Amino acid sequence: MARVVLERLTKLFRGPNGEVIRAVDALSLAVEDKELMVLVGPSGCGKTTTLRLLAGLEEPSAGEIRLDGQIVNRQPPKERDVAMVFQNPALYPHLSVYENIAFGLQIRKAPKGEIARRVQEAAEILGLKDCLTRLPMELSGGQRQRAAVGRALVRRPRLFLFDEPLSNLDAPTRLRMRAELARLHAELGWTSIYVTHDQDEAMNLGGRIAVLREGALQQVAEPLKLYREPANIFVAGFFGSPPMNFFEGKLAQEGPGLAFEETPNSGTPLRFILNGTTAKRAGGHVGKKVVLGLRPDNIGDKSVGSLSLPVAAMLERLEFQGGDTYAHLVRGKRSFVARLAGPAAAPKQSFEVHFDLSQAHLFDSDTRARIA
Hints:
Low-confidence stretches: none
Strand order of the largest sheet: 6-7-8-3-9-10
CATH class of the largest domain: Alpha Beta
Structural class: alpha+beta
Largest sheet: 6 strands, mixed
Number of domains: 2
Radius of gyration: 25 Å
Mean pLDDT: 91
Strand content: 25-35%
CATH topology of the largest domain: Rossmann fold
Number of strands: 20
Shape: elongated
């Protein structure tokens, strides 16, 4: 396995009109030995380009890629000892599962006995022992993806790269494969970089998660830290389903605390009193524009805690997610989402919810960075 360091890694492309496109923008990131790092972000944020740079399929415009301290920018793919699993399993349709898994070892002219032993070991780990004589067309989607993982696994590379390997699978198969990949990583200790746009996949797989936007790193942290302490509004809005609610306004001094005064939006503006740590951290922003963020789980139909504030709104619609019910509400022109504990009113009726201000986040309106 390997330790991976990206130092101000940059990749530029030319657009159709000659414009410069920064696919990866001065990305600095360290992936520790045996760590599973997830790269996550919206389409076009540079996730796959980063993997291709690591694999040697693209050449950096600037910056360095180091594997175990060695700069590999100019090394061809075959010399990097990196294995990549793609979104499409890309199995050879005329070869059996055994032959597909063994293919990489065969072209490297590994001894036949060694090939057989490694393929059997991989098949045992991946639950493919009964499928080795089948053709890819005779496999389920999950089995085909496992065969693609097996083809990478038998090579015993120092770095595994996964490019959205589960995105083409149906939901139940994705959940099973996600659990299998987590188990394999725990058992085998791969150094892995896993790309996805699915926040749930990222939260459940990654030891740490690196969030990208327009080629630039926004935050890298453990899953719960990303969720609880987002670095900026983008990260706060990207993680969470439904996403965090945002309210624009400004801060004013209110005795020992601070008052958040919502920007008028054709309804009665909200006004919150913030105390404790939140007020202390945001003290330097009195009189400035800020954005208050509150997750749907912290807005409910029941009073919670001493910092609970009742708010009247119009119920637009209800959304059911398994055992959870979410209310989509509107005040003036501003809409927000609350998580309900019990039965709700009918849509288009007035509805009272409670804001748990102890869980509020504050962001600088200009820089979009979190301040409290």
